[in-house]
Amino acid sequence: MNSPREKGMSQRTVPQDALIIIPMRNTVLFPGVISPITVGRPSSVAAAQEAVRAERSIGFLLQRDPQKEQVGPDDLHWVGTTGQVVRYITGAEATHHLVVQGQSRFRVLEFLEGWPYLVARVQAVAAKDELTPEIEARFLQLKEQAVEAIGLLPAAPEELGVVIQA
Fold first, then answer.
1. Which of 140, 157, 133 is CA-nearest to residue 38?
2. What's the whole-number mean pLDDT along residues 58-64?
3. Closest listed residue to residue 19, CA positions, set 93, 122, 91
4. What per-residue confidence (pLDDT) applies to 10?
5. Can you give the pTM of this predicted structure?
6. Cβ-Cβ contacts under 8 Å for 48 (sequence gap 6 or more)
7. pLDDT digit string (tens) for 85-117?
8. Beta bridge partners of 59
9. Are 149 and 50 spatial neighbours (Cβ–Cβ below 8 Å)?
10. b/e code 99-109 from CB counts within 10 Å (16+ = b)
11. CA-CA distance, 131 to 89, in Å (whole number)?
12. Which among 120, 128, 149, 165 is placed 20 to 30 Å from 70, CA to CA?
């Protein structure tokens, strides 16, 4: 049976000016880009599931050391991208695949405590809305690389590639 403290924490909602954060080992999500992301850490799986359940965006931050397993605020870059989960797929061997569309850049103001995953108060970072031919070419190159990367995943569902192509 849960203690009152545990019960209260499980019912606690993330503040509106905060984001559920998922650390990224070797990948950076960019605004406007649809990208496959695989999560495996229990805290990241819990974060993704809560964000999907609550229909909230997720904040994605790059880890400073991709080999580190237990990640805290000092292990992350504090500027990242918010993303909306387009598709959530549970694969074989308890792998969890997300197809995420990057939304906008943000900067962490402070990390909050009391959740089984990382949560941070954030501030939006203004971006230039200028789609140059160079940016468009890089976007197409990233899209091709994402499809190629999905093809290399041993347990990746076929539909991930289809979603990226779309």
1. 157
2. 96
3. 122
4. 46
5. 0.72
6. 22, 39, 58, 85, 88, 96, 98
7. 999 988 777 779 999 999 999 999 999 999 999
8. 21, 82
9. no
10. bbbbbebbebe
11. 32
12. 149
Contacts of 148 (CB under 8 A, 6+ apart): none
What is Dmax (Cα atoms) for the chain? 59
1 burial class (0-12, 13-18, 19+ CB within 10 angstroms)? exposed
**Tokens describing residue 135:** 């940016």
Angle CA 111–116–117, to nearest 5: 50
What's at 144, amino acid-wise? E
CA-CA distance, 34 to 166, in Å (whole number)? 9
Q: How do beta strands 58-62 and 96-112 pair?
A: unpaired
φ/ψ region of 155 (left if φ > 0, alpha if ψ in -120 to 50, else beta) reads alpha
pLDDT band at 166 (very low <50, low <70, confident <90, very high): low
pLDDT at residue 64 above 60? yes
pLDDT digits (tens, 9 = 90+) for 122-145: 999 886 666 778 878 887 888 888
Mean pLDDT of the chain: 85
Q: Which amino acid is at 113?
A: E
Cα angle, residue 70 at apex, residues 111 and 61 outer, rounded to 5°: 50
